[in-house]
Amino acid sequence: MIMSDSKALYIGHVLLNGEYVNVRMEHGVFTGVGKDVKPEPGDEIFHSDLMKNMAIVPPFYNMHTHAAMTLLRGYADDMELFTWLNEHIWPFEAKMTADDIRIGSELAVLEMIKSGTVFFNDMYWNTEVTWKVLDRMGIRGCMGVTLIDNIGEERIEASFDVFEKYVGRSSRILMSLAPHAVYTVGEKLWLRAVETVRKHHAFCHFHLSETKKEVHDCVKEHGLSPVRWLDKLGVLGPDCIAAHVVHVDAEELAIMKERGVTIAHNPISNMKLSSGFFRTKMVIDSGCRVTVGTDGCSSNNNLDMREEVKCASMIAKCNYGPEILPVDMAVDWATKNGAEAFGINGGEIKVGKVADALLIDLDNERFVPCYNFNSNLVNASSNEAFNTLICDGKIVMKDRKVKDEERIIAEAKECCKKWMK
Amino acid sequence: MIMSDSKALYIGHVLLNGEYVNVRMEHGVFTGVGKDVKPEPGDEIFHSDLMKNMAIVPPFYNMHTHAAMTLLRGYADDMELFTWLNEHIWPFEAKMTADDIRIGSELAVLEMIKSGTVFFNDMYWNTEVTWKVLDRMGIRGCMGVTLIDNIGEERIEASFDVFEKYVGRSSRILMSLAPHAVYTVGEKLWLRAVETVRKHHAFCHFHLSETKKEVHDCVKEHGLSPVRWLDKLGVLGPDCIAAHVVHVDAEELAIMKERGVTIAHNPISNMKLSSGFFRTKMVIDSGCRVTVGTDGCSSNNNLDMREEVKCASMIAKCNYGPEILPVDMAVDWATKNGAEAFGINGGEIKVGKVADALLIDLDNERFVPCYNFNSNLVNASSNEAFNTLICDGKIVMKDRKVKDEERIIAEAKECCKKWMK
To answer: In which domain, by residue range, is B298 found?
Structure first.
């Protein structure tokens, strides 16, 4: 769905960290960022109707989601995690076809592009379908092949096959194995998953210590909390992205720091399902790398990273005082910490970094006045101000238009009719 | 700033509570809502580029804000209430001119219109300036004349004069006296305020039990909590809108219910300033009328009622379980309960009600799929889906365009230069 195909792109006069600069990118990386940068012959010169006054920032990294679940937006609200999963979500998913997953993934990627997200860390079924959607729609991601014991040997083998088939195939689309959680995956599958991941220098993505019940049941079964049990198995390492991480103590966080695990904080899902508040102060004090994710649309019910990071910040302030999680740290959580976790040389607008950028309309009312740009971005803005999204040096949204959006919306509406009550 | 001036407006084929209807309005009230409603000769027929697929809903009531403080958006973040007020907000405000307040009010009304708000309950200085902005820009409000002891006798007299001059002048723009809080207003001024309000059948708007410190200091000074002290003075009644109401017990809520006080819940401000979480369960159990407000832009930092009510709902679920505050109740808090509090025959799309309406683009990705419209509205949407706003039978935003917006943005930017650090 790439809108521009020329090899180099030049953007003149955009606000970056309080100064107006020109930006040039070529072969997917920034080749010039500064006042004296000029276009070269043959460059595509970026022009927007709103180009009068724009800021350039690193786009968001959504570090935990289930993209295709966008088809379940609003399907089951106002209930706790296990009822919600067992009685609503899993029966719904049992009826999903591969083509439904394609449609749900397209809808999710469309929503993410429109809300300024350039990367998502996914965990779902029919991974190859979402891989192809992402390949076509032009943003980044890490596609997680879900592993759960009770899907049976055959599907587990097929899952490893999919992982092996797609891992290493694209620098834009990374691969992970995603053992769902300690309550759905036993020791054998955990070990095989991390062994496979490490063989391929890929990633491991899972839910961790999301609810009190999960921790309680794990202690009952294994005599250890989820963090301690996974550490004992040798699962935890710098290739791990652990989502939620609500019910942990300082010692467990020290283990995670030691192992280099990245935490994906999902404040809205944790509230909506009544899982609990993130222990922001203890996590910051631990020195762990923190990132932010929206979780799937059935527990949120959108994929809006701006809203997510505002909630992360506000809840932290209510629980730990207004000085905690200052806005620049919140922006890092939502952007460059995600890039760092995946070893992507991105998350910043700098020469040599991958050419991902979000252009923001500074004439949008939410950015007026502008004493503190990051404060407006996190605490005041809405997606309407996100004018243009660039991934890998290519424009994927321009003046808020994304290729194929009418077709994606129409297909999603049609496809969901079978679930209407 | 009214865009349409014909006396009757007809809107064909819009989704209302799951069914497509036609809607007609005349002289500021709905005169027809149903499948068989037809336009009459001379009616303006509403047409939008997006008219293919729209829903019609009651717009939001922002029940506690300080509109002109939009000029302070992002000026001082990440600090607690008293430092924030004393060292940043009040010194800033000391430099505000009447024209700054006009500009700030226009910016606020613009932002509220663009986020689907049709009414705001204001509390600020130079009330007549904001009154005139509202008169011109076409939405509803209740303009609160702020009273604080330490502004001195002369300004207090002038404040009562402004109230007396504007009260009863418009059915669209109501008036209140706004004794700021128990820690800034003494017995004499509280009594004079409520006596004046009651003589004119107007309203009384104040901050109440926002912080622990406020409660502690009030008990120390008066031997009673803020709710009990105000009740002893005879302040509390059905004409009172009390903002925040965080640090209260069940007995105090029973007093407020008995007196008919309306609560304006401000979840984001309470989090950002670390004031505390609203006691949602206790408040619902009390039977008090609950509404929602954004507070001013310096403690939020926007005026987005959709975001506010989502936060109210998510926090409640985290603190009290996922079943609390179901989405239809959340919508009532953010819409018709506000109308009810002010005796406005509105907050619903029904024949005979005031003709206020928000038209929502159902082809926006946040409304796809649509198993539960209210869930999408509260939990998923963003202001970009709010296509058209109608107040009192007149269009104030059409296809997301508001009259004068470029001029308002330009003036606000220019005006705020003097506060840039």
So the answer is: 60-341
User: Which residue of B73, B78, B382 is in closest CB contact with A369?
Assistant: B73
Please check whether residue B48 lies inside any domain of the structure.
yes
CATH of the domain at A366: 2.30.40.10
B390 and B284 in a common domain: no
Total domains present in chain A: 2
A73 and A196 in a single domain? The answer is yes
Residue from A73, A111, A313 whose CB has the most chain B CBs within 10 Å, to mutate: A73
Whether A415 maps to a domain, the answer reads: no
- A285 and A391 in a single domain? The answer is no
**Is A420 in Cβ contact with B115 (below 8 Å)?**
no
Nearest to B420 among A301, A371, A406 (CB): A371
Asked if B301 and B368 sit in the same domain, the reply is no
Amino acid at A225: S
The pTM score is: 0.97
Q: Say whether both B201 and B315 belong to one domain.
A: yes
Task: Looking at the structure, tell me whether residues B330 and B382 fall in a common domain.
Answer: no
For residue A373, the chain B residue with the least C-alpha distance is B74
Q: Is A24 left (phi over 0), alpha (psi -120 to 50) or beta?
A: beta
Residue B2 confidence (pLDDT): 43
Mean pLDDT of A307-331: 97
The tens place of each residue's pLDDT in chain B, 421 residues long, gives 344 456 899 999 999 999 999 999 999 999 999 999 999 999 999 876 556 799 999 999 999 999 999 999 999 998 877 788 889 988 898 889 999 999 999 999 999 999 999 999 999 999 999 999 999 999 999 999 999 999 999 999 999 999 999 999 999 999 999 999 999 999 999 999 999 999 999 999 999 999 999 999 999 999 999 999 999 999 999 999 999 999 999 999 999 999 999 999 999 999 999 999 999 999 999 999 999 999 999 999 999 999 999 999 999 999 999 999 999 999 999 999 999 999 999 999 999 999 999 999 999 999 999 999 999 999 999 999 999 999 999 999 999 999 999 999 999 999 999 998 7
- Residue A3 predicted with pLDDT over 90: no
CB contact under 8 A, A318 and B276: yes
